[in-house]
Structures are given as structure tokens and as C-alpha cells.
Amino acid sequence: MSEFQELIKNFGKSRDYVRDFFVYGFKSRQDFTSDKKSARTYDDERRRITSWMGKYVEEETAEAGRTRVKNISLMMDSNLLDENPLFAVWKTKSFTDNDITLHFALFDILRDREEKLSANEIADILSSEYALAVDTQMVRRKLNEYVKEGLIVTEKQGKNVLYGRGLTYSELLGGMDDTKGEMGDGLKEAVALMQLELPFGYVGSTVLEAAGEENEAFRVKHSFPVFTLEDEILYQLLSAVREFRNVELEIQNNRNENVQIITGIPLKILVSSRTGRRYAAICQKLKSRNSKDDRFRFVCLRLDQIKKVTDEPTGKDNLKNGKIEQQEIHEAFDRNLDYVWGVSFSGSKTKVKLTLSVDERYEDFILQRLKREGKNGNITRLEKNIFCYEKTVFDPMEMFPWLRTFIGRIIDIRFINLDNDMNETAENRKYRNDFLKDITKLEQMYL
Known about the structure:
Elements: H1 11-24, H2 29-32, H3 39-52, E1 57-64, E2 67-74, H4 97-111, E3 117-118, H5 119-130, H6 136-149, E4 152-157, E5 160-165, H7 169-172, E6 176-177, E7 182-183, H8 185-197, H9 201-210, H10 231-243, E8 247-252, E9 259-271, E10 278-286, E11 295-302, E12 306-311, H11 323-337, E13 350-357, H12 364-373, E14 378-383, E15 386-393, H13 400-404, E16 410-418, E17 424-427, H14 429-445
Helix pairs in contact: 5-6, 8-9
């Protein structure tokens, strides 16, 4: 029987388990047993998570029929955290004894040399000075891994690729105090805030740890620790955004195991200020049957449902990367974004008219809230204490949770369809009826 290893090769699997324990909580062994998730796999993942974040793991024994099951969850108060505990999952990766030996030998060779060396030269030095018989291809492969991590830099000299060490932490952190071996206060606080608040906070956490420092200044009242699990996907998407590049996305809904493949160009990452959930805005090509011209559409995908990002296979050419089309797509995206309330680009344009009763003398805060939260909607004073808020959106259903917060002040609400020239055509009674049904259900709850 193979020995349990805390270190991992496949981060995606551990990411799903950590998310399930943290978001949904109180998961037992039986909840994970299926065709693709064995009980042994669950035991290994549970032991890893307990090892990484032991003090945040809570166990509870419950009755399940005639048996007793142990439920596991991750419990943490984000208001009290000075560092995201889930960063621990990024600090685990499997390696062999040869990996460790080669790691230190390579950096020892490059550390004090100003000149850069080829893979063949490094392999010869490993053999002559370190008594390591390592194949040149393996050396080159290991060097290229460190190039991707930014630890080693390359230089092209004719047909040869030369390798040299990258910047050390002391060189990279210009604010490091060489006399004391400590960060300057200003830099330390900047990195401490970054690792709590910004995407890729794991980088800031690693810098603090390498410098022997801790966050002693900041706590974030409303933080979303779980979204660090998506940072690898986020990095790949942002790279594609910068390069305006087609990618292939493997999508899996968290509720089932069906996998969907979507191709397109990532344009922007949208973040919910309420939940912290992140979405990738993707441009997809639509082939027109009656025209040689290709059309495109925009969709938003949840980052926690994107399991894999790869370059689109050669030959598909989903969208051209010409500057003219690139500008056209970005301009169309910006125009459409004005009509997106949440993340939905689907549906035809609909104008929402909300008539409210607001006491102008004592309830100015309601009007201020409409301006602050109404996403540039128009506010018109119809008469004393009567105001109309108007906003055109693709999907009015996304507005419903916000609109419900005005129940008790709503005099009337209408949803009106618009044509391509933004002219009003007919009232959409379906949206109105759906909204009124919610109020009726709420009323029945209190009868």
C-alpha cells in the first residue's frame, strides 16, 4: 500500500476539496463517495487539509440512520485574520530527492557567476564539480521550469539559450534594509495590505515569510479567503486578456460532473463587491449562416467553475487578432457593459421604471442610495415626494434582489421592451408578474 503524502501533484483536486469544506462545510466521507471520488481519496484529501490548516478544522459527529458519521468543515473568522489560511494550499507540491539535489546545485552554480551558461555547460559542471550525472535534457527542462517562475532569466546567443540567476529577494525588494536584514516599514505595510486585499495575495504572503516579517497592521472586515483558490486560473486568464488571445476553457458546474468546453477571448475580470465572486467576461464568435461576416457575443463565466485554461488548438482561429477587430470588440464590449446589471449579457434591452414614495424632508438617504447603487440610472422627481428611477438592462431578473429592498415604498414598477433604436415598444408583463409573485409569497409567509 502506498504511503500517504502531504505534498500534491494535482492542485485542482485539492482545490475542489478545500472549497467544499470551506464553502459548504460539514462534509462527511459518504458525501464524497461516488464513481469518481473514492473513500480512500477522501481520506487522503481530508488528512492533507487537516495538516495544512489544523486549527481551522472542526469535526462534528452526527447520526446518519443507524450509523454515526464524522463531518468536517473549515471555520475561520475573516475579520480576525492577518493572513489568508488558504495560502497554505499553494505551498505544497510533490518533489523527489533528485529534484531537491538539482535545485540547490543549479542555484549554487549560477549564484556567483556574472556570465550566463548554456544547459550543456551547466550539465558538465554538475558532472565534474558535483558528481551528478544528469541528462542535459533534464537540466534544460528544470531550468525552464525556474524561468517560468521568474527565478532564472535567459538570454539568446545565436542558436544557444543561456541561463543566469534572477533577482534575489533582497534585490527584488528595494526597500530591504541591508544592515538589519529587515523590510522598511513602508514596504512591509504595503506588502501586508496587498496579501490580504489584492488578487494573488499569496505572493505578498510569500515575500513577508521570506523576509521573516508578519502582518501587524491590517485586518479586513469583509474579505473572501476562498477565492485565492482560483488565482492560478485568474493568472492564465489575465495573460490572455493582455495578449488578446483565444483560449479553451474547461467548465464544470459545481453541482454535477458534466464538463463543457468553451472557446473565446477573455476581455475582463468582473468582481462582485457583495460576494467577492469573480467572473471572466469572454468574447465568443458566432458563425452567421447567411453572411460571410462573423458575429460575436459576450458571456460571463464564474472562475470557480473554470477547471482548466489552455491555448486554443491551432487551426480553429475562433477570432482574428487584428488591431481593427480588437478595437471593434472592445468598443462593443464597453457599450454592452452599460446594460449589464450583474454579469448577464443575454436578453434584449429592457427599461425598468420604478416609481417610489420618498419623503423629501426626512428620507434623502433613499435618494442618495439610488444614486450610489443605481449604476447610473436616471432619477426624476414627478411631484412632491414621488420619484421615478429608470435603468435599461439586458436581464431585469438580476435587479430583483436590489428592487425588493424598496418594498414598502414602491408605488409602481414597469418593465418595457426596447427596439434596436432604444424606442419603447411594449410592456413586458412577465417580469412584472414575476416580481409581484415574490411579494405575494412574502405576504403569505406572514399571514
